[in-house]
Amino acid sequence: MNIRQAKIEDKEKILNIISLLYLDIPHFVWNTDPFVTAQIQNNEYFVIEDQNQIAGIMSLRKRKDKIHIETLAVKKDFQNKGLGSQLIEFAKDFAKENNFKTLQAYSFTQYQAEGFYKKLGFTALTYSGEYKRYPYNCFEIKLTN
Q1: Residue 120: its pLDDT value, please?
Q2: Contacts of 19 (CB under 8 A, 6+ apart)
């Protein structure tokens, strides 16, 4: 397994994987070409490779004093192999290397990802969010050096 910064040449493969996350929500931007292009150009997108192909993706954004996982997806053929967990471990290390003490993740409730994040040490925050009337969960983990 190899995790690396995404390149613009990876964009079509990223868009293909991110289509797994599409929800029929007005102004759902996370799977659009301009949004993904901007995140790649801002060095916010990472890919995990397995068997010489991109098997999963993750976007990390720095906001104030926290790193946020905005997108995380693994191709169906590669699910249940621990790649999502490896991406989370990478995010933790990335946050620590950049002197952040908190890693947060957001996930629309339809994705049913609460068990995944809790298994990896995140706690569900007492508040949740809403985007265009669609609720999402907020998860957080405190990082130590």
Answers
A1: 93
A2: 31
CA-to-CA distance for 134 and 130, rounded, in angstroms? 5
Report the DSSP beta bridge partners of residue 4.
47
Instruction: Name the stretches of the chain with pLDDT < 50.
Output: none
Looking at residue 92, the DSSP 8-state letter turns out to be H
Residue located via tokens 């990478």 = 90
> 11-18 vs 33-41: helix axis angle to the nearest 10?
130
Q: Enter the pTM of the model.
A: 0.90
Note whether residue 88 is domain-resident. Answer: yes
Q: Which helix (H) or strand (E) holds 136?
A: strand 134-142
CA-nearest of 85, 96, 108, 98 to 142 is 96
Flag whether 128 is in a domain: no
pLDDT for the residue numbered 145:
66
What CATH number is given to the structural domain containing 89?
3.40.630.30
Tell me the three state secondary structure of residue 142. strand
9 is written with which tokens?
Answer: 């040449």
